[in-house]
Design a protein that fits this description.
This protein is mostly helical and about 675 residues long. It is built from 32 helices and nine strands.
Length: about 675
């Protein structure tokens, strides 16, 4: 316990305000953020800002977890220092020196200048590590994984492994496990540094960043040569015991185990760290193992690899219960089915549990059925890609195995088929799937049992995660939460780069955020996928060209596909944009023709009425223009209703002002 008067005096010296002190004094005693916020009558965001100012004043930099623990360490250390100083100033018989009182032990103002501590216990205490959490996420709640944590501690601390790879499919919890492990073992190191490779930093940049963090002084002049930078980094790793974490290595890997173009030199860095004589450790997280690590492991070098699987049922149930979205006892009894269905994947369970009402209308039976159908469709799409023509029985068997973490026996598969009403013979189907390497016979148990090919399983899991994230991003877009929508949709694309809907939705989101450059990028990507999505993306690209003044380009884009589109809504948008482009070229008759066609296909799209009003006004038909301005405003009001909410165009707000002005002053 840190005495309040010691804490108050220290806070006063550092310029900590009363509000900040209230947050500080409660936080260091271990109260939860929710409890402190409620007690002080502030929001959690406001509370975090107060603590953020406290961290700055204590010179605790960086982001992510661990800052509070570091603050507690600093306070305890300074308090112990105060006691030691007081002890040194005390007479040999235990009597306080002249003019001192017992209060001096806890009074900052009475503290002499800090000097070497004579107390053996304090003098021999380990120096607190310098921790730079970088982009590490906060992990406020962590369930299970005690065996994995013990394994990482053994490898990193006791076995002095120079490289530890934490591998697993997306959402399985690699990053959360790495954060938790680092928190538990940080005191074993002089430096702990976390860096994310999500934004794909080039090798020279990451080297400069790491050297800056490890150097006792600011480094401004580093050699340009990458090889020399690696050598300098290795010197720091040899002189101090450091734990470096590079999260999301898969961001710079191709779908295989090779690096993307321009990032091949990361392989050299890892090899140098492993083969040099240093006392440090590099921990990486990745969806799959880079080739050089596979080769280095064959040389009996100090490398360890932990393949992470799904959570056990008890830990997975805690994730579901924590969402507090379930009340029916019948639903609670079905949690095992949910966990089994999702293979104990923490991200999938978190998404579904937290957004159950939005994604599945709160109906548990519907959720199980819908998820099974979705997995079947994902499987069919995947098999179509690899030209595998499978029977319905084989498809159903694969669905039974899709996300399971443990092998499933032949008898269990037969039972599942019987429950589903399937009467086909299982054995030929199993043999066929094994022959095609889609199914793998397990060697873990004596009885015949099977698991899905790991790559097929990863594909299904990532597709499913991407689908849910896309749905959530779409909902956030419709509710006007564009930054949150962008976060969901960006993650959806990371799990499935080929999901056209996510690229289209992200393009629309970037439009709302006034980032037309990125909007174009994602619309352009969407044009390369399925026809309807591609045509819709081309329509939006044409609209952006019109907004940018490239009218002829827009017309050419539309005319290339206009006669190929069958979907009425997409076709209506194309006619609207073509009419808009013709209007801007003063081709009023052609513009009117296109806009009328658009309204015939979709009479609820408000922008079409506005552009047609503009055409009529340009032709001198003021009364007709006023009618269309009125139709535009009526349609726009109905478009705000939940059932009509869709991709609202950023320019609509400006157009509404013009329409109201025309209706109030029709002859201006």
């Amino acid at each position: 316990m840190i005495p309040q008067n010691f804490l108050r005096n220290l806070s006063t010296k550092l310029g900590i305000s009363d509000n900040e002190f209230d947050a500080l004094s409660r936080a260091i005693q271990g109260e939860s953020m929710d409890a402190i916020a409620q007690e002080l009558g502030v929001s959690k965001d406001a509370l975090q800002k107060r603590l953020g100012e406290v961290y700055k004043k204590f010179q605790i930099m960086g982001r992510g977890p661990g800052k509070l623990a570091r603050l507690q360490q600093i306070l305890i250390s300074q308090y112990q220092q105060q006691i030691a100083n007081f002890s040194n100033a005390t007479a040999s018989d235990g009597t306080p020196a002249k003019n001192d009182t017992a209060q001096s032990a806890v009074s900052v103002d009475a503290t002499p200048p800090i000097r070497e501590v004579s107390s053996p216990e304090i003098a021999n205490a380990k120096t607190h590590p310098r921790i730079d959490w970088g982009e590490a996420p906060d992990v406020p709640i962590f369930y299970g994984r005690s065996a994995e944590l013990a394994t990482l501690k053994q490898w990193i601390v006791n076995d002095s492994s120079r490289l530890v790879a934490l591998l697993g499919i997306g959402g399985i919890g690699k990053t959360a496990l790495a954060v938790t492990a680092l928190q538990q073992i940080q005191d074993e190191f002089d430096y702990c540094i976390w860096r994310s490779l999500k934004e794909r930093p080039p090798m020279p940049n990451i080297l400069f960043d790491l050297i800056q963090s490890l150097s006792p002084q600011s480094v401004t002049d580093l050699p340009e040569n990458t090889e020399k930078r690696i050598s300098l980094l290795l010197k720091y790793l040899s002189s101090s015991r450091c734990l470096l974490v590079l999260d999301e290595l898969d961001s710079i890997l191709q779908k295989s185990d090779h690096y993307q173009e321009g990032y091949e030199n990361y392989a050299d860095l890892f090899q140098r760290i492993v083969t040099s004589g240093n006392q440090s450790c590099l921990l990486i997280t990745s969806w799959h193992q880079p080739l050089e690590i596979t080769l280095l492991r064959e040389q009996s070098l100090p490398i360890k690899v932990l393949q992470l699987n799904g959570l056990d049922e008890q830990s997975a149930q805690k994730i579901i219960y924590s969402a507090k979205k379930f009340s029916s006892s019948n639903e609670n009894n079905s949690f095992s089915e949910m966990i089994q269905l999702y293979g104990g994947n923490p991200l999938l369970l978190n998404i579904v549990a937290a957004n159950f009402a939005d994604l599945f209308s709160g109906n548990f039976t519907q959720f199980i059925q819908q998820t099974t159908l979705v997995i079947q469709q994902i499987l069919r799409d995947f098999l179509q890609k690899i030209s595998a023509d499978l029977s319905d029985t084989e498809i159903y068997l694969l669905c039974c195995l899709a996300l399971r973490t443990k092998p499933v026996s032949t008898n269990d598969l037969k039972s599942n088929l019987a429950v589903a009403g399937e009467i086909s013979d299982v054995q030929p189907a199993l043999e066929s799937l094994i022959k095609q390497a889609i199914l793998v016979k397990s060697s873990e148990v004596v009885e015949d049992s099977f698991i899905l090919n790991p790559e097929v399983k990863k594909y299904i899991t990532h597709q499913l995660i991407a689908k849910y994230l896309n749905q959530l991003g779409h909902k956030k877009y419709l509710s006007g939460e564009f930054q949150t929508a962008k976060a969901y949709l960006t993650q959806a694309i990371r799990f499935n780069p080929d999901l056209a809907a996510s690229h289209y939705n992200l393009g629309a989101t970037y439009e709302q955020l006034q980032d037309l450059f990125k909007a174009r990028i994602h619309y352009q990507i969407a044009t390369g996928f399925n026809k309807r999505g591609a045509y819709a993306a081309i329509s939006n690209l044409a609209r952006l060209e019109i907004i940018s003044g490239n009218v002829e380009t827009a017309i050419n884009l539309i005319l290339q596909i206009l006669d190929k589109v069958k979907d009425d809504l997409v076709l209506a948008a194309l006619h609207k944009n073509l009419g808009w482009a013709y209007f801007l070229q003063n081709r009023y008759q052609e513009a009117q023709l296109q806009l009328v066609k658009s309204i015939e296909l979709n009479n609820l799209h408000s922008p079409t009425y506005y552009i047609l009003a503009q055409v009529k006004e340009a032709q001198g038909n003021i009364q007709e223009a006023l009618v269309y301005y009125e139709d535009f405003l009526k349609c726009d009001r109905s478009d705000k209703q939940p059932q009509g909410a869709h991709w609202r165009l950023p320019e609509l707000d400006v157009w509404k002002i013009t329409a109201r002005q025309r209706l109030n002053f029709p002859h201006n």
